[in-house]
Amino acid sequence: MALPLRAGDISFDPRITQTDFHTFSLLVAQGIYADPVQPARASGIAGFDLGVAATVVQVDRNATYWLRSVSSDFSTSGYVGVPRIVVSKGFSAGTLSLSYARLSNTGISTVGGALDLPIINGGLARPTLAIRAAYSSLNGVSVYRLRTYGGELFLSKGFGLVVPYIAAGPTRIDARGTIVKTLTNPEI
Hints:
mainly beta; 8 strands
């Protein structure tokens, strides 16, 4: 099992490099990104889903990007998990999804959302092709701000009760960190 992030556990060492910060931010962005948890489809005005999802990210606990970005190691066996609740509501042309995670024993939360719009509605013989726009943010950490933005093209095809899907597209992150001046590093 991977443990969730704690707000007091993220603080940046003055020796952190841009490369370390970039690597750390990519991993956290991967953990909070509003990944699709349902196939491409317009579920219609009556469509409503409520579910639980989780993203688990592997970290190298001995790497400088990790050691210089966290004040205590909050991973379990080199993994960090982000569980979330996902609510999806269909409308005539697509599906709107919202996700929320409040990480236990912390002030950290993540909020995300996605809008799925089918380009080609599937049927018995053809798959559904949709475009997707996604957004998520990390909240509750005063020294770190992170936002993710994504656009995806995804494809799904139902086979009875099973509906596999695949998605691909670019993701952009906006990450900003602050090194706090303390008595142990007053020269900052």
